[in-house]
Design goal:
- By secondary structure, this protein is α+β, with helices and mostly antiparallel strands.
- It has 2 domains: about 5-120, Beta Polymerase, domain 2 (2-Layer Sandwich), CATH 3.30.460.10; about 130-225, no CATH class.
- Strands 3-4-2-1-5 form a 5-stranded mixed beta sheet, sandwiched between helices.
- The protein is built from 10 helices and 5 strands; from the N terminus they run H-E-H-E-E-E-H-H-E-H-H-H-H-H-H.
- A hairpin with a 2-residue loop joins strand 3 (about 55-60) and strand 4.
- The radius of gyration is 21 Å and the shape is elongated.
- It is about 55% helix and about 15% strand.
- It starts with 6 loop residues before the first helix and ends in a 16-residue tail after the last helix.
- Helix 7 runs parallel beside helix 10.
Length: about 240
């Protein structure tokens, strides 16, 4: 791939052609980290004038899919707060770790600095109610997974996914670290806790390849031990319709 066809060059052309009034733009995701395949989409965050509308769009440009995070300057603080509350910080990471494409007035530099500051503070801690709810949820998934027979593959695989996801959520929260979904879940998990994270991922793979849930349930229980152990009887939750 020559420089003209690089993800950075493609993203720059996209911004110039489709958003001539943009106040700043940054390329994030795998493309910014040099991990993109030829068919990978482009994650591009674009700062817009306040006369425009904040939104998220998926388009195809020059034959390549692109996911656009379009935010007006006035909406940036609100969107960053929302992104932090989700604990995944997708938009924050795009700005904090991405490759600048356009910044004629310095708005992007200031926005990226703000994103890095929010990321450095970490996600919000789990509330006591969230901790107990997630602890109970992981216990249920772990117990159900341990009870599946080797020939119950549909149930086993579904429960393995749920166990991994809930355990990853709790383990990253324990370390005040960001979580993720899709390909970012293992990346964030290994970054937050290389040993326990790898045990969870290896256990999940063992279920998929060998129909053996024991390593994953053991790894999940190790995560639960960080929160007081499995939670079964005694759990209560207020419920309002």
């Amino acid at each position: 791939m020559n420089s003209h066809d690089s993800p950075t060059a493609q993203a720059s052309r996209l911004v110039a052609e489709l958003f001539p009034d943009a106040l700043g733009a940054v390329l994030g995701g795998s493309a910014a980290q040099g991990r993109a395949a030829a068919t990978s989409d482009l994650d591009v965050a674009i700062l817009l004038p306040d006369s425009d509308t904040s939104r998220r769009e998926v388009i195809r440009h020059e034959g390549r899919p692109a996911e656009l995070f379009l935010t007006t300057l006035a909406d940036v603080p609100e969107y960053f707060a929302w992104d932090r509350a989700r604990r995944r910080a997708t938009l924050l990471f795009v700005h904090a770790e991405g490759l600048p494409l356009l910044d004629p007035h310095g708005h992007l530099a200031r926005t990226c600095a703000q994103a890095r500051a929010v990321l450095a503070d970490g996600p919000p801690p789990l509330t006591p109610e969230e901790r107990e709810r997630d602890r109970y949820g992981l216990t249920c998934f772990m117990d159900d997974l341990a009870d599946t027979a080797p020939d119950q593959r549909y149930e086993q695989l579904a429960l393995a996914d749920l166990t991994l996801g809930k355990a990853a959520h709790l383990l990253t929260a324990h370390h005040n670290a960001w979580t993720g979904i899709g390909k970012w879940l293992p990346r964030r998990l290994l970054s937050a806790d290389p040993a326990r994270g790898k045990a969870l991922l290896d256990g999940h793979r063992t279920v998929a390849e060998h129909a053996d849930p024991a390593p994953l349930t053991a790894a999940a229980e190790e995560v639960l031990d960080l929160f007081g152990g499995p939670l079964r009887e005694g759990y209560a939750q207020r419920w309002r319709p």
